[in-house]
């Protein structure tokens, strides 16, 4: 993968093939979920390039590689999850992908602190996945995700798109169910407003006794 010269695929299926060839999508059900959700519904600019793209309000949609990496780590947990949380849902892209991995009686909640992006997410999802909103398998909420979303906790899976302080990590872990899993970029020894600190992608797991580990 090259980030100086990102791969530019011609079609949605070409993009998913590329992510599979790069071993970022290794599960058949994850591949099927990604194939159902065309990235062109969520960004007008180079939707099939393996790069982050601007979506307005000083925000981007993450690169396909980053999304695939995150859901590869969450895939098994999402399959058995009853409730999942996506913090910083932005364009809304990951919400239907996560919903299609989960069962029909499960729910994924998208949290976004920019009100206009909440509306954008809903409009993007309505293009081809309106039923997921109508049946409340997806719910989008205007909220400050640094506090998680206690009203519908605990969650079996949590994904965070933006870099997060260790303080917020601990808040979110308190809302993660036993046997749950969380993927997010962490700012080490920093607060949520410091964009110049070193970031590290971490995967947190909580076992059946509530003990937490990370890789």
In words, what does this structure look like?
There is one protein chain. The protein is 33% helix and 25% strand. It contains 6 helices and 10 strands; from the N terminus they run ααββαβαβαβββαβββ. Strand 3, helix 4 (94-101) and strand 4 (107-112) form a beta-alpha-beta unit. The longest helix is centred in the middle third of the chain and has 20 residues, at 115-134. The protein is globular and about 45 Å long. The model has no long low-confidence stretch (mean pLDDT 94). It has 215 residues and is α/β, with parallel strands linked by helices.
Features:
215 residues, alpha/beta, eight-stranded mixed sheet, two-stranded antiparallel sheet, 6 helices, 10 strands
Describe the main β-sheet briefly: 8 strands, mixed
Query: DSSP helix count?
Result: 6
Question: What is the string of helix and strand elements?
Answer: HHEEHEHEHEEEHEEE
Molecular shape: globular
Secondary structure: helix percent: 25-40%
| Strand count | 10
- Spans with pLDDT under 50 lasting ≥5 residues? none
- Mean pLDDT score, rounded? 94
Strand content: 25-35%
Radius of gyration: 16 Å
Quick recap of the structure?
The protein is α/β, with parallel strands linked by helices and 215 residues long. The chain has six helices and ten strands; from the N terminus they run H-H-E-E-H-E-H-E-H-E-E-E-H-E-E-E.
Task: Write the SSE topology.
Layout: H1 12-21, H2 28-36, E1 53-56, E2 59-61, H3 64-80, E3 83-87, H4 94-101, E4 107-112, H5 115-134, E5 138-142, E6 155-160, E7 164-165, H6 166-173, E8 176-187, E9 199-206, E10 212-214
Parallel strand pairs: 3-4, 3-6, 4-5, 6-8, 7-8
Antiparallel strand pairs: 1-2, 8-9, 9-10
Helix pairs in contact: 2-4
């Amino acid at each position: 993968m090259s980030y100086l010269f990102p791969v530019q695929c011609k079609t949605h299926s070409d993009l998913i093939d590329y992510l599979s060839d790069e071993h970022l999508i290794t599960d058949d059900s994850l591949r099927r979920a990604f194939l159902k959700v065309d990235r062109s519904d969520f960004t007008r600019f180079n939707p099939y390039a393996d790069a982050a793209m601007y979506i307005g309000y000083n925000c981007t949609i993450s690169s396909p590689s980053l999304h695939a990496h995150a859901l590869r780590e969450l895939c098994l947990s999402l399959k058995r999850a009853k409730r999942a949380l996506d913090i910083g849902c932005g364009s809304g892209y990951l919400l239907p992908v996560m919903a299609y991995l989960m069962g029909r009686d499960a729910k994924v909640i998208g949290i976004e602190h920019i009100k206009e992006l909440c509306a954008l997410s809903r409009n993007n999802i309505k293009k081809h996945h309106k039923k997921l909103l109508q049946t409340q398998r997806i719910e989008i909420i205007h909220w400050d995700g640094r506090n998680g979303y206690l009203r519908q906790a605990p969650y079996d899976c949590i994904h965070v798109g933006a870099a997060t302080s260790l303080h917020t990590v601990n808040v979110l872990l308190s809302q993660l169910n036993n046997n749950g899993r969380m993927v997010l970029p962490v700012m080490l020894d920093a607060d949520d407003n410091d964009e110049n600190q070193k970031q590290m992608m971490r995967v947190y797991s909580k076992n059946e006794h509530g003990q937490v580990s990370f890789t």
